[in-house]
Amino acid sequence: MSIRRPESGPEKAVADWWRTDIIDMKPGEISYYGYPIESLIGNVSFTQMIWLMTQGELPSPEKAKLLDAALMSAVDHGPQAPSIAIARMASTCGVGLNNAMASAVNVLGDVHGGAGEQAVTFYQMVNEIAASKNSSIEEAVIEGLAKQRELHGKFIPGFGHRFHPVDPRAPRLMELIAEAKADGIVEGRFHSIALQVEKQLLNEKGKAIPMNIDGATAVIYGELGIPAELARGLFCLSRSVGILAHAWEQTQQGGRNKGPIPRDLLWTYDGHPKRDMKNKD
User: Fold this and answer.
1) End-to-end C-alpha distance for the chain, whole angstroms
2) % of the chain with per-residue pLDDT over 70
3) 190, 199, 237, 241: which has the highest count of C-beta atoms within 10 A?
4) At residue 1, does pLDDT exceed 80?
5) Residues in CB range of 235: below 8 A, 6 or more apart
6) Strand-pair category, 35-36 with 23-26
7) What percent of the chain has pLDDT over 90?
8) What gap in Å lies between CA 19 and CA 161, rounded to an integer?
9) CA atoms of 272 and 138, how far apart (whole Å)
10) What is the C-alpha separation between 180 and 187, in angstroms, rounded?
11) Is the distance from CB of 240 to CB of 83 less than 8 angstroms?
12) Helix 115-133 / helix 213-223 crossing angle, nearest 10 deg
């Protein structure tokens, strides 16, 4: 059977049904955005490949290092995180690793997993305020915080953590961004905005509301020009590593039909007291 790429006629409409700039493939040839796969293998890291596949160009090694730091820092947060717990429970139901991973990734939404995207959007709003009004970052942050609360409520995405008084991941990520800023790799605009938000929250609350992992990775995504919506997808890739690790570990440990609480404990029942069908009237 010959495989061809039609250039005209009705078959061209069929070939155009799925149009893509990402991959070109024919018998014996595979290329991504024009790069033959054999030239990428051994020369491009997985993180650089993620950038190429989502952005269309290869990043500089320095920018790839920042993206790599963002991806590796968010891989796991233990079985108390819903996605990880779901992966482990699914594994005890006899499903395969892919099923357990899919079940877990499907709960990464606005509440669990969406704060990074929300933080990027918030930083971008502050940046746009500063640019459009030619105001200082401090003024833009004050206005941006007010607008964020008006639109979305009191919680500011990327700041504070229900478990960690200080999220140990955020300061190290901010150090790396500061180094990249000093070396001229990134502009540092989002870095400055995030630090000013942290400062303003301290002024408002009288106590520190430290940046968390989502706030810090959002700085990296903002500095690298990654759209907010794509930031959530990248977080899903990152957390998939932890999901896979926990699903695999649970598979090795065994266990059947493990629920969210040990089986010798019962959930709280707030329903109607026991009643008799004879007295239903």
Assistant:
1) 75
2) 99
3) 190
4) no
5) 74, 108, 113, 116, 117, 217
6) unpaired
7) 83
8) 43
9) 55
10) 9
11) no
12) 50
Q: Tokens 């964020």 label which residue?
A: 148
Q: What does the DSSP assignment read for 212-246?
A: -HHHHHHHHHHHTT--HHHHHHHHHHHHHHHHHHH
Per-residue pLDDT band at 11 (split at 50, 70, 90): confident
Per-residue tokens: 24: 């070109």
Measured in degrees and rounded to the nearest 5, phi and psi for residue 30 equal -140, 130
DSSP 124-185: HHHHHHHHHHT--HHHHHHHHHHHHHHHH-SPPTTB--SS-SS-THHHHHHHHHHHHHHTTS
Q: Distance (Å, rounded) from C-alpha 261 to C-alpha 172?
A: 35
Locus of tokens 């995405």: 157
Helix orientation angle between 189-205 and 137-152, rounded to the nearest 10 degrees: 70
Q: Which residue has the tokens 């239903």?
A: 280
Looking at residue 280, what is its pLDDT? Answer: 67
Q: Which CATH class is domain 113-239?
A: mainly alpha
pLDDT score of 89? 97
CA dihedral 36, 40, 41, 47 (to 10 degrees): -140
Give the Cα separation of 58 and 252 in Å (integer).
Answer: 38
Burial level of 76, CB count in 10 A (0-12/13-18/19+)?
A: middle
Place of tokens 């009191």: 154
**Phi-psi region at 265: left, alpha or beta (left = phi > 0; alpha = psi -120 to 50):** beta
The total of other beta-carbon atoms located within 10 Å of residue 31's CB is 16
pTM above 0.85, yes or no: yes
pLDDT in tens, 219-270: 999 999 999 999 999 999 999 999 999 999 999 999 999 989 898 999 999 9
Q: Which two tokens stand for residue 65?
A: 């290092």
Average of per-residue pLDDT values in the chain: 94
Domain boundaries, the chain: 113-239
